[in-house]
């Protein structure tokens, strides 16, 4: 049951083979058993969770269930959920109880989904290993010595360890796709503006986008049906018709369902820096696509190499401003003792933020300062347009772009903590889509073994054109019809 | 050597919208602290701004009213600084691309001493939309500072002039004109006590004839025209004296203390923040189309300039009269209402700009709180026009109306001010006066014209002012020629 798809769970619930309370309870039991070692959840509230499950059962009995009614999900702790501790992985908000719901939370509530708890994450979503969380790192369920990736590391580990049916994540530079890759699950970062950011704690506003993290593309499609949609409270939310993200799945039903699909392989994604064992897995996955009828085209995204420097100007710039509200005045951490107002600001922020967050606030403040703005911020914005232009050109030649989601499999905890640049390189294949506002996803494509490590999951990245999520989900789904990587589960007793 | 003062103004006008500029929170002045503050106003984690269309309309109205360029695309930027009453740690404002570009306001500078009144064009550099901050409240709780975020997010239009003004009088005339204009077009209630209209004045001095601007100091948050006048005069004197004593001016922000009449530096600009402006990624650029402008244009009231020209053409009034009448929407509306109620236009103009305005000034009242309504004034003026009372008597009646003794007819009746219209009665008085002043009659007949006026005076006096002077003139002439 814990490995069932959302669709299977929904039909069991609706056929009354199991109640939402029973299903929820079984996940809660697993959480009690495994969360202490994995640390995927940082806020649990059984009473609240079970109350939602009971309400879902009533709704199912009344016959007006939706596809997700009664299904237990995990929510990244970046989403404000009324009455829930919402910390964003930071000491700054360690005691902050959200008095309102994020749009995404409202959407899931209205669908009747059950919130199992809030998942661990890198502090303010800044990190690629979940090691910057104030609440401690998260174990990769495939190997407890290894990181789950980040920043949505808690959600990724919760899905991989089957501590929830599916989860939400957010992706500013790869925070859904990289942990999905490292934990062997399917995650989608939609086109910018598809999911409302209202109530999602901001890191870098022009890049942040929420999306699903689940076992399969089919599950991601069902999650997207709930998460996506126009919200007037987010000015960057796009006013588009509501769409069914599962509409393309299983079409057409032939031996070569992807006949004619043009897959672009950017040479920059297979150059130096990519782990050889990962490259082999990706190549094998591409071969599967060939068998499904797809045509492979070599393409180039010439400005890819600039995406990391551009990102590490723009994202910290926005973050330095977005995080100014955490000043200890109205809520959040305030130093116990201070001499005056400035001292209160200094001490509260020095105590409340961790090292990586401080590093990015400093970078962001610097690049926005008088005398540096043009050279850094403005220049980065110009290059951002060039990077987006690369994709526009590429999509004239192909329908989707494929490559690795991360340069390596999961690395050991502690390995890159003291080397921020090595950590930043984790997002080398994912960042450019955030800069361009494009949708991207990662799906399990196999396992790779390096040196002394066990075999760990490898993610295949699919990048689509704007608003092409439904097609991407089908492209991933077809692969999952002929492979079973996405159904493999880690052995938690051995990990 | 002669000194010249150079003045530019930055005015924060609070826009009359139902809700805040980036949220649906209500705006009510004087409400209990933090009762007008929603999750956006207090900047909870995760909240986002949504631009209030009404505020944009106000900005377009202002742009149209000063013939300014209205930007087809303007951008909201974040102005970053820490302050307890600034909940997000940044203010959403406009920086590089403001919604309203260059425009102009024509001001009437009143006569001062020997210097006659004159007109001057003040150029507007820009006007931009932004949000107000909250307020720090000291002393409400012993030993603590409180933060009231009711005002946080209130929409403001900041209107910036070129350094075009050359005296405190010009600066005040501009501020008054702007104050009237924003109320005229209905974008601001103009309430200076409540902070709806606040002026920052940049003052510098230089030798007359010099092209180069001197170092300026900015007088912050002046909330009355009287204080503005005093503050600029003090600041100008201070700067000149400082320079003449061999000192130098440092750029600074200063506050005016109404109790001492002095300005004092609050902080020097060298210590000022680097605001790290950058485009707000939470808001899309503000796009204003020709259709948007046309739609707002259609809802605009007639502007003072157009109304002035119309009054001149329609009523044959002088430029001076129409200028005075259109100096405020209230005055213009009052005048129009009086004419509509039957007052003769020229007469009404004289009274509105004369007696009525004088009374209002004396009592420091605005036209909207005039003790005599436009319709009541019209009734009074009709009584002058139809010969019921003399112009002099009308002034007396007006005074009585002002203090609430009743309407014109009732007061005329009560005070017995009705003119004599019965020519028999007037003739009897004339005969009496002629008999009693035979010598004067002789003088007139001998060619002394002045004697005629003296006789008229005697007759008016004998009638206790109730005789109609024109009628007296006629009848006396006839009798003397007989």
Descriptive notes:
- The complex is a heterodimer of chains A (495) and B (482).
- Chain A has one domain (1-495): Alpha-Beta Complex (Amidase signature (AS) enzymes).
- An eleven-stranded mixed sheet of chain A has the order 1-3-2-4-6-5-10-11-9-7-8, sandwiched between helices.
- Chain A is built from 15 helices and eleven strands.
- Chain A is of the alpha/beta class and 495 residues long.
- In chain A, α5 packs parallel to α6, α7 runs antiparallel to α15 and α9 (307-322) crosses α12.
- Helices cover 37% and strands 13% of the residues of chain A.
- The two termini of chain A are 21 Å apart.
- Chain A is globular, with a radius of gyration of 21 Å.
- In chain A, β10 and β11 form a beta hairpin.
- Chain B is an alpha+beta fold.
- Chain B has three domains: 3-292, no CATH class; 302-415, no CATH class; 423-481, Arc Repressor Mutant, subunit A.
- Helix content of chain B is 39%, strand content 20%.
- Chain B is built from 15 helices and 15 strands.
- Chain B has helices at 53-65, 168-184, 225-244, 290-298, 304-315, 319-325, 329-340, 345-363, 374-385, 391-402, 408-415, 423-436, 438-445, 450-462, 469-481; strands at residues 3-14, 73-74, 76-80, 90-94, 103-109, 118-131, 135-138, 145-148, 155-161, 197-207, 217-222, 252-257, 262-268, 278-279, 286-287.
- Chain B has an eight-stranded mixed sheet with strand order 5-6-9-1-10-11-12-13. A three-stranded antiparallel sheet of chain B has the order 4-3-14, with no helix packed on it.
- In chain B, β11, α3 (225-244) and β12 form a beta-alpha-beta unit.
- The radius of gyration of chain B is 30 Å and the shape is elongated.
- Chain B starts with a strand and ends with a helix.
- Chain A binds chain B through residues 79-80, 86, 88, 93, 96, 98-100, 102, 197-202, 204-206, 232-236, 317-318, 320-321, 323-327, 329-331, 341, 345, 365, 368-370, 373, 377, and chain B through 39, 42-51, 78, 80, 82, 84, 87-90, 147, 274, 276-278, 281-284.
């Amino acid at each position: 049951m814990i490995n069932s798809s959302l669709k299977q769970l929904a039909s069991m619930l609706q056929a009354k083979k199991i109640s939402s309370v029973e299903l929820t309870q079984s996940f809660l039991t697993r959480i009690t058993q495994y969360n202490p070692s994995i640390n995927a959840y940082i806020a649990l509230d059984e009473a609240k969770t079970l109350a939602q499950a009971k309400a879902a059962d009533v709704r199912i009995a009344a016959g007006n269930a939706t596809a997700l009614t009664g299904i237990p999900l995990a929510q990244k702790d970046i989403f404000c959920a009324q009455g829930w501790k919402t910390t964003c992985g930071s000491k700054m908000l360690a005691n902050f109880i959200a008095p309102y719901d994020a749009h995404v939370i409202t959407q899931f509530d209205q669908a009747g989904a059950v919130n199992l708890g809030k998942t661990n994450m890198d502090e303010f979503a800044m990190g690629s290993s979940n090691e910057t969380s104030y609440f401690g790192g998260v174990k990769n369920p495939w190997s407890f010595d290894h990181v789950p990736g980040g920043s949505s590391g808690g959600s990724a580990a919760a899905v991989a360890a089957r501590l929830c049916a599916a989860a939400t994540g957010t992706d500013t530079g790869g925070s859904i796709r990289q942990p999905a890759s490292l934990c062997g699950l399917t995650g989608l970062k939609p086109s910018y503006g598809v999911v409302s950011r209202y109530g999602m704690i901001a890191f870098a506003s022009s890049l942040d986008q929420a999306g699903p993290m689940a076992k399969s593309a089919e599950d991601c499609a069902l999650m997207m049906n709930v998460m996506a949609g126009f919200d007037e409270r987010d000015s960057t939310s796009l006013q588009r018709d509501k769409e069914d993200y599962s509409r393309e799945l299983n079409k057409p039903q032939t031996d070569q369902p992807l006949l004619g699909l043009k897959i672009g392989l950017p040479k920059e994604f297979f150059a130096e820096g990519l782990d050889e064992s990962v490259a082999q897995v990706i190549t094998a996955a591409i071969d599967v696509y060939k068998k499904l009828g797809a045509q492979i085209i070599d393409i180039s995204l010439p400005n890819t190499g600039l995406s990391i420097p551009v990102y590490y100007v723009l994202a910290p710039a926005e973050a330095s401003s977005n995080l100014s509200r955490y000043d200890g005045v109205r809520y959040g951490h305030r130093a116990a003792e201070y001499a005056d107002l400035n001292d209160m600001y200094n001490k509260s922020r020095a105590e409340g933020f961790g090292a990586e967050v401080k590093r990015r606030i400093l970078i962001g403040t610097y690049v926005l300062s008088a005398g540096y703005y043009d050279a850094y911020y403005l220049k980065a914005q110009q290059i951002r347009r060039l990077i987006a232009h690369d994709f526009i050109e590429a999509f004239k030649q192909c329908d989707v772009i494929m490559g690795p989601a991360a340069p390596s499999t999961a690395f050991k905890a502690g390995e890159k903590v003291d080397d921020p640049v090595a950590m930043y390189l984790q997002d080398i294949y994912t960042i450019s889509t955030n800069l361009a506002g494009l949708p991207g996803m990662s799906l399990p494509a196999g396992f790779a073994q390096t040196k002394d490590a066990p075999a760990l999951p490898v993610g295949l990245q699919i990048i689509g054109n704007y608003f092409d999520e439904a097609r991407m989900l089908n492209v991933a789904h077809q692969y999952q019809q002929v492979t079973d990587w996405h159904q493999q589960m880690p052995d938690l007793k051995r990990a | 050597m002669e000194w010249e003062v150079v003045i530019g103004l930055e005015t924060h006008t609070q826009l009359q919208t139902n809700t805040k500029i980036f949220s649906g929170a209500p705006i009510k002045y004087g409400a209990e602290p933090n009762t007008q503050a929603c999750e956006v106003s207090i900047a909870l984690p995760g909240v986002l701004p949504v631009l209030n269309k009404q505020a944009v309309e106000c900005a377009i109205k202002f742009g149209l009213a000063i013939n300014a360029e209205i930007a087809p695309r303007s951008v909201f930027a974040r102005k970053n600084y820490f302050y307890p009453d600034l909940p997000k740690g940044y203010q959403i404002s406009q920086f590089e691309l403001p919604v309203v570009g260059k425009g102009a306001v024509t001001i009437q500078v009143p006569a001062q001493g020997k210097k006659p009144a004159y007109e001057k064009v003040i150029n507007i550099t820009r006007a931009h939309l932004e949000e107000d901050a909250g307020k720090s409240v000291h002393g409400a709780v012993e030993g603590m500072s409180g933060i009231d975020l009711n005002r946080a997010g209130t929409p403001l239009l900041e209107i910036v002039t070129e350094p075009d003004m050359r005296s405190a009088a010009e600066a005040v005339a501009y501020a008054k004109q702007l104050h009237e204009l924003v109320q005229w077009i209905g974008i601001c209630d103009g309430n200076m006590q409540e902070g709806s209209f606040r002026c920052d004045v940049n003052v510098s001095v230089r030798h007359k004839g010099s092209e180069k601007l001197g170092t300026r100091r900015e007088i912050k948050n002046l909330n009355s025209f009287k204080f503005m006048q005093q503050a600029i005069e003090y600041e100008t004197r201070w700067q000149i004296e400082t320079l003449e004593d061999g000192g130098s001016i440092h750029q600074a922000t200063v506050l005016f203390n109404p109790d001492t009449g002095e300005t004092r530096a609050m902080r020097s600009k060298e210590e000022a923040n680097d605001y790290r402006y950058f485009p707000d990624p939470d808001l899309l650029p503000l796009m204003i189309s020709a259709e948007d402008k046309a739609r707002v244009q259609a809802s605009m009231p007639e502007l003072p300039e157009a109304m002035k020209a119309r009054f001149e053409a329609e009523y044959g009034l002088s430029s001076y009269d129409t200028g005075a009448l259109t100096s405020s929407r209230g005055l213009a509306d009052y005048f129009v209402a009086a004419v509509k109620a039957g007052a003769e236009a020229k007469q009404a103009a004289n009274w509105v700009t004369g007696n009525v305005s004088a009374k209002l000034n004396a009592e420091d009242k605005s036209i909207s709180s005039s003790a005599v309504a436009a319709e009541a004034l019209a009734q009074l003026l009709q009584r002058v026009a139809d010969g019921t009372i003399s112009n002099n008597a009308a002034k007396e009646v007006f005074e009585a109306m002002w203090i609430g003794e009743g309407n014109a007819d009732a007061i005329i009746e009560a005070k017995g001010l009705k003119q004599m219209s019965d020519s028999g009665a007037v003739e009897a008085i004339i005969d009496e006066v002629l008999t009693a002043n035979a010598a004067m009659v002789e003088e007139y007949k001998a060619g002394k014209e002045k004697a005629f006026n003296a006789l008229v005076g005697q007759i008016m006096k004998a009638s206790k002012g109730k005789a109609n002077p024109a009628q007296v003139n006629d009848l006396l002439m006839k009798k003397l020629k007989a």
